[in-house]
Amino acid sequence: MNGDPHNDFAPENVVERPCVCVIDEYAEGRREWAERVNDPSRLLLEFATPLSLFSELVEEPACIVMVQRAAGDGYAELLRECKRRNWTTEIVLLAANASIELAVQAMRRGAFHVYDVETVTDAELAATIHAAAATSGANRALRQRHGEFNRLMANLSSRERDVLRLVIIGMPNKQIARQLGISIRTVEDRRRNIYHKLGVDTAVQLVTLVLANDWTDWQRPQT
């Protein structure tokens, strides 16, 4: 494996410990930064380029620390590939002679933080990596939650979705029945099916689940 693990590497470590990756084209630089950011609670891997990281790493890391020593667009390459893979990994950019323009551009593209390699302290870097890893974890949890919600929603029939849209806006069963041209008993049956399929017991739980997962289809005009 070209990515040099700073700590003992085993496949289970990737799962058990958050993974932080250091990218630096210079081997001595990689080793220096790896030593500076090393933490026994994390698995630390080193790579020469974004390409080598993506060719060798399957699991999504908790944080990527990229060292950019010369003018170039390595960070943009890294960001594009993360997006293509649907990774929510936060990226900390360490740039040589970091300018305000570079920092603004990188932050707009999605960098978690930008530091100048000559001035960043170990304490600053450690705190930032900790925060970045925590944010990445929260982002992944949110993505997984949305994915599970979407799988549950896929089980609803189109008629159950019609009822759900009206429940979300607070419409009572009698009015839903009149709106959809169905009986109150049918509305009750469909609501019961919705609750069962989405794993909720009350209307409050239902509304909370739907809105917390940004389901905007309820805003679609009724036909």
Topology:
Elements: E1 4-5, H1 11-16, E2 19-23, H2 27-37, E3 43-47, H3 50-56, E4 63-68, H4 74-84, E5 90-95, H5 100-109, E6 113-116, H6 122-153, H7 158-168, H8 173-180, H9 184-198, H10 203-212
Parallel strand pairs: 2-3, 2-4, 4-5, 5-6
Antiparallel strand pairs: 1-3
Helix pairs in contact: 7-9, 8-9
Structure commentary:
This protein has 223 residues and is α/β, with parallel strands linked by helices. The chain has two domains: 4-141, Response regulator (Rossmann fold), CATH 3.40.50; 155-219, Winged helix-like DNA-binding domain superfamily/Winged helix DNA-binding domain (Arc Repressor Mutant, subunit A). The protein is 54% helix and 13% strand. The chain is built from ten helices and six strands, in the order βαβαβαβαβαβααααα. Strands 1-3-2-4-5-6 form a six-stranded mixed sheet, sandwiched between helices. Helix 5 (100-109) links the parallel strand 5 and strand 6. The radius of gyration is 24 Å and the shape is elongated.
